[in-house]
């Protein structure tokens, strides 16, 4: 049975991915800051076995604790989906060093530490996947969110370095780059807009598919990257955005 760690799996894209992995029979460890919601997700009636862990992935020890729990739950580790992220939006003058470091600790350092802790286990796996949630925010920039854009761009280059080191041993390392996904995650961005309703209308009009994604839209790509069908893909960042960055 494929053993999967979903880091940041209690809400949004992570929760939808947990459901997708479990629906195909995988064993999943749902690691999240919000233990109660992670437990709810793990308790859903789906084929693959699941367990929950409450963990702060932005701490130096959190990612390794999540990997250890996934190995204990699944008996091995084949797939890490590192998905937790943080979005702070504020005018440039209001940013503190602590704000900057908080974003980097979760969005960029946690994927690095997940990879470091998982690598010995993945090297023994016949599937062996590291998948991280980046963003189209890695490819462009919006006012008020300097750390978010810098961290996601860094993540896309982190997977190149990790692929160079780990892929000779069979580990595929990639990011998915969603465009706009309708989850609580973007609340900070909308609150930063002068007229949130008008901003949402303008955004929707700028997306060729004329809507934000729902979390389930992202899951097919994640499952593809966590399957043998993607055996020849590594070191890549795959955009899934309804055409947002195409125009
Ligand atoms: N929503 C979007 O429009 C969008 C677009 C592109 C990329 N993303 C990325 O997708 C990922 C998931 O976002 P989402 O939209 O599903 O958000 P969400 O808020 O629905 O879910 C995020 C999850 O991460 C968990 N989390 C937050 N901080 C954590 C920490 N320190 N330790 C452990 N868990 C923590 C939360 O508890 C939550 O369960 C993020 O990396 C985000 O950058 C989101």
Automatic annotation (TrEMBL):
**SUPFAM superfamilies in the record, alphabetically?**
NAD(P)-binding Rossmann-fold domains
GO terms assigned for molecular function: 3-oxoacyl-[acyl-carrier-protein] reductase (NADPH) activity
Lineage, top-rank taxon, reads Bacteria
Which Pfam families does the annotation name? Answer: adh_short_C2
What PANTHER family does its record include? Answer: 5-KETO-D-GLUCONATE 5-REDUCTASE, ALCOHOL DEHYDROGENASE, PUTATIVE (AFU_ORTHOLOGUE AFUA_3G03445)-RELATED
Q: What is this protein called?
A: 3-oxoacyl-[acyl-carrier protein] reductase
Keywords of the record = Oxidoreductase
Give the enzyme's EC designation. Answer: 1.1.1.100
Q: Which family does it belong to?
A: Belongs to the short-chain dehydrogenases/reductases (SDR) family.
- InterPro entries for this protein: KR_dom, NAD(P)-bd_dom_sf, SDR_fam
Provide the Ketoreductase domain boundaries: 2-183
Is Oxidoreductase given among the entry's keywords?
Answer: yes
Which lineage is the organism of this entry classified under, starting from the top rank? Bacteria, Bacillati, Actinomycetota, Actinomycetes, Frankiales
How would you classify this enzyme at the top EC level? oxidoreductase
């Amino acid at each position: 049975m494929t053993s999967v760690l979903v880091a940041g799996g209690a809400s949004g894209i992570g929760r939808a991915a947990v459901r997708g992995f479990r629906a195909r029979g995988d064993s999943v460890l749902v690691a999240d800051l919000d233990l109660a919601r992670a437990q709810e997700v793990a308790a859903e009636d789906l084929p693959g076995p699941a367990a929950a862990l409450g963990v702060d992935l932005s701490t130096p020890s959190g990612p390794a604790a999540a990997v250890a729990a996934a190995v204990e739950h699944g008996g091995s580790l084949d797939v890490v989906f590192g998905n937790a992220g943080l979005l702070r939006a504020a005018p440039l003058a209001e940013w503190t060093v602590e704000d900057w470091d908080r974003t980097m600790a979760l969005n960029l350092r946690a994927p690095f530490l997940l990879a470091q802790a998982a690598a010995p286990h993945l090297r023994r796996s016949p599937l062996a996947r590291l998948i991280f949630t980046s963003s189209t925010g890695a490819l462009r920039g919006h006012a008020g969110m300097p750390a978010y854009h810098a961290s996601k761009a860094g993540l896309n280059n982190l997977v190149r370095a990790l692929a160079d080191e780990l892929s000779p041993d069979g580990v595929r390392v990639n990011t998915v780059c969603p465009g706009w996904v309708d989850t609580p995650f973007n609340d900070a961005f909308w609150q930063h807009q002068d007229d949130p309703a008008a901003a949402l209308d303008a955004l929707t009009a700028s997306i060729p598919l004329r809507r934000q994604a729902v979390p389930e839209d992202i899951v097919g790509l994640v499952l593809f990257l966590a399957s043998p069908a993607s055996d020849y893909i590594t070191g890549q960042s795959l955009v899934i955005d309804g055409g947002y960055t195409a125009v």
